[in-house]
Amino acid sequence: MASTDPAPSTTRRTVLIVVGVVLVAGIAAAVWWFTRPEAATVDIDNALGAATASPTATPSVAPTPTPSPTPSASPTTSPTPTADPSPEPSASPTAAPAATGQAWDVTTDAVAYDFASAAGTFVGFRIDEELSNIGATTAVGRTPAVTGRFVLDDTTITSGEFTADLGQLTTDRGQRTRAMLGAVEAAEFPEATFVQTDPAELDAVPPVGEVVEVTVTGDLTIAGETNPVDIPLQAALTEAELLVVTGSFDVALADWGIDTPSAPIVVSVADTATVELQLYLQPGETTAIE
Fold first, then answer.
1. How far apart (Å, rounded) are the C-alpha atoms in residues 147 and 277?
2. Which of 198, 216, 244, 256 is the Cys-Cys partner for 222 at CB 3.0 to 4.6 Å?
C-alpha cells in the first residue's frame, strides 16, 4: 500500500504549535530573566557575619620598626681639657608635633566577592527601570576592584578616600553591563573616586562587634564630573581586626552628566540612582596627620 503525506492543514497546525511553544518559552524565559530576585543590598549585619565566617588569615597591624641599639662608646685616652662650658642658647620655638592616627586600608582579600549575595568589598549602584511587557525592575551594577584608605585619630575620621575601577563594573546581564559602562563613560573615565573633605566625628570608640553610624562629607567624581556628597556609613570592628563599613546614598545622574541608558525593551529609567559601598579594611601603618 502506498504511503500518503500528511494533509497540508495538519502540517501547518503542527508548525504553528511548535512556533507557539517556542515563543511562549522565550517570553517566559525573558520574564524570568528580568524579574528574578535582585542582587542583595548592602547590610552591615550580613557583612559582619561574612567576615566572621571567612577562613582568611587574621590581618595584623604593620610592625613598627625597632630602633637599632645605640653602639657603646669606644675606649678613649684621657680626656682633653676643654674650656668652661658656655650657657646653651635657648631653643627656638618649634611647631607642635603632628598628631598620629591609625590608617585602615581597603582589602579585597578578607571576604570573597559575590555579586548576588553582596559579599566582599565592592562599590556599585541600583537604579529603577520600567521594561516593556515586563514592568518595574531594578538594575544592579558592582565592581569589586576598590582601593582606599581611612585614617582614624581616636574618635575622629581625619581623612578618607576610595577609588572604584568602573572598567570592571558588571551587572546581572551582559547587554545591561554594556549600556551602563557607556553611560558612565568608563572607557574614558575608568575610575570613580571619593575624597573626604571634612573630619567626621564618632560618638565614641565602639567595642568589637558594635555598629556605629557616622556621615562622611567629601567629593565624588564620576565620568569626569565632581560633586560634594554626604555618605551615611555604618561601621563595626571585628575580633579579627577588620573594620567593616557599609553605606548607600542617592545621586542625581544629571549632576554627573550621566545620560540614562536606553534599549528597545527599556520604557524608562529613573533619573536618580542609589550608590552602594561595602568595604573591608585592615590596619595599616600609623601615619602622621597634617
1. 12
2. 256
